[in-house]
Each structure stands twice: as structure tokens, then as C-alpha cells.
Amino acid sequence: MQIAHDGAVAIVSKNHYLVKSATELSHFTVRWEGSHWICDCPTGKGSGICQHKYAVSFMRNMAKLKYAENDIRCPRCDCPSSLMTRKGLRQNKYGIAQTYGCKGCGYRFVHRPGFGKMRSNPTAIVASLDLYFKGLSLAKISSHLKEFYNVEVTSVTVYNWIRKYVRLIKEYTGTLTPSVSGKWHADETQVKINGRQAYLWNLMDSDTRFLIAKLLSFNRRSEEAQLLLENGLNRVGKEPQNLITDRLKSYDAAVKEKRATGRINSMSHIAGGLKEGRNNRLERMHGTVKERTKTLRGLDNFESAVSFTDGLEIFYNYVRPHSALDDRTPAVAAGMEFLSGNPWLDLIQKAAKKNKRS
Q: Is residue 284 a part of any domain in this protein?
């Protein structure tokens, strides 16, 4: 972030950047090779990770936000984009935004889909979402916004942004149907909610790593296992060939109940302990959850815990690329639309557009 902030990244083209060396009077070349970034520094060659790649990624993600103008409609008379004209830029303490004029009614407005009536710079909001689910605390995000964007907000404001936009995005992503394989994994991990023991249940596709369904509860009974499985069946619209779980008896009881009601027919239930290594994919994902929840020092209440786990699900499925998927996200691997270099912004805009239609 410091490299990008210091202006050490020079743009040659859309997929070609020069990053100034911190120790020598030279530059490193960072280039997009169709599926991943490469850098000619010793660390960043091939698929290696280096600070120069991170600097380019950060600069691209947090650059001035641009919006698709073909989706613009006048908020007063609903005229389409063909009747809009640009009327210059409007700048205030919250940032720079394009102003448009409607030929139909003469109304002037700023087009910021997903950020209507929000007083703060959209860049700061998107940055807050990205940094929070990458592991920064609310206090550190608040400090970062003041230092890099000259936006002074409290930790409470940042938290309210996160809850607002996680809820908006979750409503949108819940309508999408992933294309998954016939092999699913189910497992649960422990989380603390206001000092009380709780369980986060997850259902994941084996091939795409897509998190199909999740559930937060205070119990590990067959009722919770049934609800997790039901949510997954509803999301995908079909039953898998195999369901792999640990030896928790709740899963076995849930599968038997679903068979008795005709909800599943031919699915095989494979129950195996950790020693068999059958649920390694979910175990790795749960390790990420535990690492992130350590910095939270527990969740205040059940509602905030649901919001936080919803955000983690969005981050895991749609934002964070996976090396095992050739640096794609599970959503892309599951046949969903590819998101731009700033997936949080893309998700907010798509969610706001669908919310407006509905």
C-alpha cells in the first residue's frame, strides 16, 4: 500500500506496469499473462508473490471508481442513458464524481450506483470491505482511511458500512445458482458469540471449492444438519452423488430423514474422520475462519455473527482467488460471471441494480 501511495507504480498499459525499486535506481516490470501476474524481480517470477504485484493490485482496486454509463437512468423522469449528457465533475470532501444532465427534464444528478445517499467517498467504502475481510481491524481501517484517503470516520461508521453492503450483496448472491460437481463436503467449526460456544456449518463443492451453504447455530443436532443440507439442495436445485462428512452422527440422521421424505434418493453418504483426509478442503477453509476470528476476539451477538459469516462467504466465493483454481475465484470456477479488478465494487453495483428492479 505504501508503494502505491508513494506513486512508485507507473502505468505503461492496461496490463503492463513499472514499479520503482526501493533499493536501486531501476524499475521492475509487472505484466498480466492472461491468467496471472508476473514480475521480473527475483521473488515474483512465475506465480511467486512479491510486493510489486501487490502494489499494482492495490492501485488498480483502489483507483478512481468508474461506472457503466449504459445503465444510467434519470432518477427524476427515468429517461435512458441515450438522453444523458455529461456536465463535468463534482468535487467535495467525499471525492470526485461525474455529473450528468437529463435532456428529458433538465435534471442534474451524480450517478453512483449502490452508493446513493451515502455521504462518504465510495472508494473508502469499497476499501473498508476489502481490508476488513482480509484481516484488518476496524480501528486500523479507520486509521488507514484517514492516512490514505483523507476520510475521517469512526470504527462504528466503518462497521455500519460493512453490515449495510454485506446485506445488500448477500441478497443478490443468494439469487445466483452455481454450477457444481456431484461431490460435496460438509463440516462444522467452533466460533465464539459473546463468550458462548457456537458452530459454523459449511457445505462446499469439491471441484470448484464453492461454498454452497452455511449455517450458524448453538447446537450440533440433526435438525441443524438437515437445515444445512436443505439449504444446499435449494441453492443448487439437485442432489449430489456423494456427500462427505466427518463421523458426527447428526449428519447420518439428517441424511436418513431426507431419504425418508424423498428429498434425496441416490446420494451416497461417506462419513470419515480427519485421518482419512476426506474433508481437507473444508478444514483449510475453517483454518482461515479461525485465523480471522482471532482478531475479532469474539462476536458481540448472533446478528453480528451472521453478518460477519455472510461477509466471509462473499469474500471466499467471489473476491479471493484460489491458487488451486488457477487463481480464479470459486464463483468463476462454478460458471458465474467474471468480476472486474474490483470485485467488491462489481458486486455492489450488480446488487444495487437488481435491488432497484425488484
A: yes
List, in sequence order, the alpha helices (H) in the chain.
2-5, 51-61, 122-133, 138-149, 155-173, 222-236, 249-260, 280-296, 302-314, 330-333, 343-357
CA distance 147 to 62: 14
So what's the pLDDT on residue 215? Answer: 95
What is the bridge-based pairing of β-strands 183-193 and 242-245? parallel
Alpha carbons within 13 A on the beta-carbon side of 109: 20
In a domain, 358, yes or no: no
Would you say residue 221 lies in a domain? Answer: yes
Our count of domains for the chain comes to 3
* Same domain flag for 198 and 243: yes
Residue 275 belongs to a domain:
yes
Residue 72 has which C-alpha cell? 444510467
Q: Which domain holds residue 12?
A: 2-61
Same domain, 242 and 266: yes
- pTM of the full predicted structure? 0.71
Nearest to 209 by CA among 349, 329, 32: 329
Contact 126, 94 (CB under 8 A): no
> How do residues 12-22 score in pLDDT, each as one tens digit?
877 888 888 87
Which residue, among 242, 254, 136, has the nearest Cα to 201 in the 3D structure?
Answer: 254
Could you give the CA distance from residue 255 to residue 259 in angstroms, rounded to a whole number? 6
Taking only the tens place, the pLDDT of each residue in 151-171 is: 888 999 999 999 999 999 999
| Same domain for 273 and 209 | yes
DSSP 156-196: HHHHHHHHHHHHHHHHHHTT------SEEEEEEEEEEETTE
**Same domain as 84, residue 22:** no
- CATH number of the domain encompassing residue 282: 3.30.420.10
Per-residue pLDDT tens digits for 101-112: 888 888 887 766
